[in-house]
UniProtKB/TrEMBL annotation:
One of its GO terms (molecular function) is N-acetylmuramoyl-L-alanine amidase activity. It comes from human gut metagenome. Keywords: Cell wall biogenesis/degradation, Hydrolase. CDD domains: PGRP. Pfam families: Amidase_2 (PF01510). This is N-acetylmuramoyl-L-alanine amidase.
Amino acid sequence: DTAWHCGARAYWHPECRNANSIGIEMCSRKRADGSYYILPETVANAAALAKDIMQRYGIDTEHVVRHYDVTGKRCPMPWVDDPAQWAAFKDMLTPKNTTTDEEDEDDMVRYNTIDDVPDWAQDTVRMLMDAGALQGDEHGCIDLSRDMIRGMVIGKRYADARSPRYATIDDVPGWAREETQRLIDRGALKGNAHGELDVSMDMLRTMIVCQRMMDENK
């Protein structure tokens, strides 16, 4: 059987075809403005799977390509429109130049509970668990490797850099401040346990669009 993941009538890549390649599919999300993005945990999972496949079949990073590189299709769209995201993903697949015995041992460790996770990654892993994006098995075991955790942290940092979060009304951009304040005054938007709004640009845009639609329907 052949997986039909990169077929086309015409090809950009001289060699890569359905029959001699392995495809990894990722789910993307759509923003209010119609653009697409990939969740950090999805990127981390794809990187972990890619590294496993690379190790099993002796594939180097030069032979890891996008759908776009094979056929010219704008896929994955976020990684075509922003090559830096693709470069960051490839960097996650690049093996270390040297490893110590201790590092090799770390690569074999599995973290089964949040308490097992190293301190530097606990906040990120806990956030993904609280959001329901990371779930354990029927016994509650999350079964994470060190590489998976590193991928999650890198993805989270990248997402934070791409989409800043606003903690107070003064942090909110001027074009959104008045309507955000109205939502706060009405009790529709409340802070977290620390009193922070903790809203992203996408959340702001969605809230304002909904607010304007409600105002028009009055």
